[in-house]
Please model this.
Amino acid sequence: MERLFKHRDEVKEKLQQRALGLLATASLFVAEKFYTFDLDEESKQRLREVNEELKQGSVIIYANHPSTKDVLVIPLLREHLSNVKKAGIPMAEKYTTPNWQKKGSFGISVFDKLMRVVGVRFLPTHQRGINVEPAFRFLRREKKADRGHRVMEAMFDFLSNGAGNVVGITPTGTRTPEVEGKFRTGLARMMLGNQNVPVVPVAISYEGSRTICLRVGESFSLTSVGFEAGDNKGKDIKKVTRLCENRMLGLLNPEKEV
Model:
């Protein structure tokens, strides 16, 4: 009897996951028909250049985060980056792991399936490494700084683990129409640990309710811009954060000097 119940639960889980996958695929299809993407020729050329860079190594892509609809940009970028082997997005565990007793878990599951449809994986920020099970009990006893250190180590491993890996990040950490003064330090820390890795800014904006505008900036690395780390790590992080923020502001407001 116990084996029968176990088999029933396994079948139920498989059917549930398959249904979520179909729903995610259908949602993506409808969204692509409903929304129009505005991607200029200069941005397309820069994506072609990034695609070539992926043959040689990893790439970090960062974007602003003005709306929940920003997620629709990921499949569009994925279409232009055929050389991607692995793609991951650092995200808080509470947004990546469904808890069916909490409101919103169904949406999280569909979102996760949607990302998997286009070949993107979440990188929960509580984990000790990439593609490992959460160590909840162990991490609860760790200090916040130690957890952050482990997250950075995991990102470094992901970026140094061969050509074709992409980490996508929204430096503001949450939805906000503002950029200036809103960038957190995670992107800068990743870049300081991977100074030769190309970094690509992507600016997202909206015209009306159905047009998503995308502007892709020129890729750069700390090495290519001649950045030299000093003795004060905190100051270095602030400088790199400001550098990335200015690049984003330049894409969002090309007529304004930053």
Q: What stands out?
A: The mean pLDDT is 78. The radius of gyration is 19 Å.
